[in-house]
């Protein structure tokens, strides 16, 4: 009978070791998966914030270079000088007043056409940062945490309105809070029980 008892004890011991090994392995794998998900979320959040900064810098540079009062004044002055120069060239060549005026207008049109092309090229430089922003936002908009997904959508909406700096900053701040909350480990069972008893 003792041989059977020893065999049963060995079997039970082996089962206990197998169950403990399975539990420890599963727990370790779950912990590693949570850490990997946390690192992924941190990287995605960083990429989104950098992409928002890139969009803001590109838009600000475009605004300063091509849309500000100094740029418009420069364009007006250049157009005026081109018109006067074209008109004078027409007069020197012996053209009538109407012909000289037409030559001056042609010079103005040519200059403004080049300016418009340069502005369009500058505006196109914002396209790439916007594309990078959309790429960075895509996985975050599908995040299982609804608050993170909603905050990402708010950042995307705010980033399209470059003039609203306060709105962009508020959206990025809300996004940061949502990410920080998502990165916090869930409360332990004991902490949840204690919070209910208070």
Description:
- The protein is mainly α and 198 residues long.
- The chain is built from 7 helices and no strands.
- α1 (2-67) packs antiparallel against α6 (165-183), α2 (69-92) runs antiparallel to α3 (97-124) and α5 (146-159) runs antiparallel to α6.
- The longest helix is centred in the first third of the chain and has 66 residues, at 2-67.
- The radius of gyration is 33 Å and the shape is rod-shaped.
How would the blueprint of this fold be written?
Elements: H1 2-67, H2 69-92, H3 97-124, H4 127-141, H5 146-159, H6 165-183, H7 189-197
Helix pairs in contact: 1-2, 1-4, 1-6, 2-3, 4-5, 5-6
Can you tag this structure with a few keywords?
rod-shaped, 7 helices, 198 residues, mainly alpha, 88% helix
Task: Put the structure in a nutshell.
With 198 residues, this protein is an all-alpha fold. It has 7 helices and no strands.
Are there runs of 5+ residues with pLDDT below 50, and where?
none
- Outline type: rod-shaped
Please count the beta strands (DSSP E, at least 2 residues each). 0
**Computed structural class:** mainly alpha
Could you tell me the mean pLDDT? Answer: 81
Terminal-residue CA separation: 56 Å
Give me the Rg, rounded.
33 Å
Helix percentage range:
over 70%
How many helices in DSSP terms?
7
Q: What percentage of amino acids are in beta strands?
A: under 5%
Characterize the largest beta sheet: strand count, sense, and whether it forms a barrel. none
* N-to-C order of helices and strands: HHHHHHH
């Amino acid at each position: 009978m003792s041989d059977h008892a020893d065999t049963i004890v060995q079997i039970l011991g082996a089962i206990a070791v197998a169950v403990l090994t399975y539990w420890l392995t599963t727990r370790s794998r779950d912990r590693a998966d949570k850490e990997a998900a946390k690192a992924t979320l941190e990287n995605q959040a960083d990429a989104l914030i950098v992409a928002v900064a890139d969009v803001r810098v590109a838009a600000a540079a475009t605004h300063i270079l091509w849309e500000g009062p100094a740029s418009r004044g420069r364009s007006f002055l250049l157009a005026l000088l081109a018109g006067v120069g074209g008109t004078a060239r027409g007069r020197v060549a012996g053209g009538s007043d109407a012909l000289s005026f037409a030559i001056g207008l042609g010079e103005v049109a040519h200059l403004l056409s080049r300016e418009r092309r340069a502005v369009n090229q500058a505006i196109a430089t914002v396209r790439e940062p916007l594309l990078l922003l959309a790429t960075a936002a895509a996985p975050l908009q599908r995040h299982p945490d609804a608050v993170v997904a909603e905050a990402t959508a708010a950042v995307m909406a705010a980033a399209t309105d470059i003039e609203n700096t306060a709105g962009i900053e508020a959206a990025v701040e809300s996004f940061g809070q949502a990410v920080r909350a998502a990165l916090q480990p869930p409360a332990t069972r004991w902490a949840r029980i204690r919070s209910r008893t208070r």
